Amino acid sequence: MSVDNDDLAALRQRIDGIDDQILELVSERARLAEEVARAKARRGEALKVYRPEREAEILRRLTEHNRGPLTREQVTVLFREVMSACRALQQPLTVAFLGPQGTFTEEAASKHFGHDAGMSPQATIGGVFREVESGAAHYGVVPVENSSEGVVSHTLDRFLDSELAIVGEVELRIHHALASHAGGLTSIDRVYSHQQGLSQCRAWLETHLPQAERHPVSSTAEAARLAALEPSAAAIASEAAAERYGVPLLQERIEDYHGNTTRFLVLGYQSPPPSGHDKTSLVVSSANRSGLLFQLLEPLARNGIDMTRIESRPARQRGVWEYVFFIDILGHAEDESLRGPLAEMRERASLFRILGSYPRAI
């Protein structure tokens, strides 16, 4: 059905009116956020503007009530930005991330904290930990695992030496693009990317660029920077990184698995209270003996606790061929259903540490 000019003008007028209402309501929300900060100051409470469990509850409630046509993801993005702006009025947050600018980790940090958080790029995963440990950043974001390439071992190893806790998680769908100033694929003689990017696009490279040398670099953003300087080079990077360094896209979505997803952890000093949809991360170990892993995990199985991930890493400060196990389970450490099983695991382990209980990724 066609819409005449009068009808179109009326629709636009209604949209203008709704926009005015949205602005007033968002402004009222911001004023209330400022009042919360003042109320805490009057009561002598420490100002804590980032409440992972509270934000998770808000987003789940809104997405459950969403009747469309906006998708669940669109509603989440919209309200994360509203919460980010309101947080910034109370206290600006600084978030350290694995840089440089243009990495997928920066994208994950912005997805979780919104664009009103101050972003502080760090050259290494260890650098992100140190920024938070020193107080130079309020929180940090680091990658921990990819759905097609597995665990990021540097992140797990760093937890063995740090007192930081996991306070949140982010899941980001990873889409790789090929960017280059070369006129076509046949003109490309080398491809830069992070090792994970090269691995996640291995089959595509073998099919379309078998002649090109592959050069791993520190990040996909660094790959884009290098490709910007070399006419015959290409980068496997995000579209954002290619745009940031002015490198034209030759091919989009070249990852071998289109469900390719990376999970990131949010680092802080104190795990949040239960949100009702939580995950708990543990690190456990014991002296190497027959049936060790079964004995450590048996309390979880007996009590019907869902385990979503287990990874083993060499116990660097223990004996040769001894290992520590990183385990993720569903639920919060304060949940009644988890207290007993976790206490049993603690009794059976020589090393037992709860790395954090936090809301599951939305």
TrEMBL record:
Residue intervals of the Prephenate dehydratase domain: 94-269
EC number: 4.2.1.51, 5.4.99.5
Main subcellular localisation: cytoplasm
GO biological process: chorismate metabolic process; L-phenylalanine biosynthetic process
GO cellular component: cytoplasm
Domain of life according to the entry: Bacteria
Site (Essential for prephenate dehydratase activity): 262
Pfam name, any one: PDT
Keywords per UniProt: Amino-acid biosynthesis, Aromatic amino acid biosynthesis, Coiled coil, Cytoplasm, Isomerase, Lyase, Multifunctional enzyme, Phenylalanine biosynthesis
PROSITE patterns: ACT (PS51671), CHORISMATE_MUT_2 (PS51168), PREPHENATE_DEHYDR_1 (PS00857), PREPHENATE_DEHYDR_2 (PS00858), PREPHENATE_DEHYDR_3 (PS51171)
Matching CDD domains: ACT_CM-PDT, PBP2_PDT_1
Chain ranges of the ACT domain: 281-359
InterPro entries found in the cross-reference section: ACT-like_dom_sf, ACT_dom, Chor_mutase/pphenate_deHydtase, Chorismate_II_sf, CM_dom_sf, CM_II_prokaryot, G/b/e-P-prot_chorismate_mutase, Preph_deHydtase
Pathway(s) per entry: Metabolic intermediate biosynthesis; prephenate biosynthesis; prephenate from chorismate: step 1/1; Amino-acid biosynthesis; L-phenylalanine biosynthesis; phenylpyruvate from prephenate: step 1/1
This protein's record includes keyword Magnesium: no
Reactions that this protein is recorded to catalyse: prephenate + H(+) = 3-phenylpyruvate + CO2 + H2O; chorismate = prephenate
Protein localization: Cytoplasm
Primary role: Catalyzes the Claisen rearrangement of chorismate to prephenate and the decarboxylation/dehydration of prephenate to phenylpyruvate.
Name under which the protein is recorded: Bifunctional chorismate mutase/prephenate dehydratase
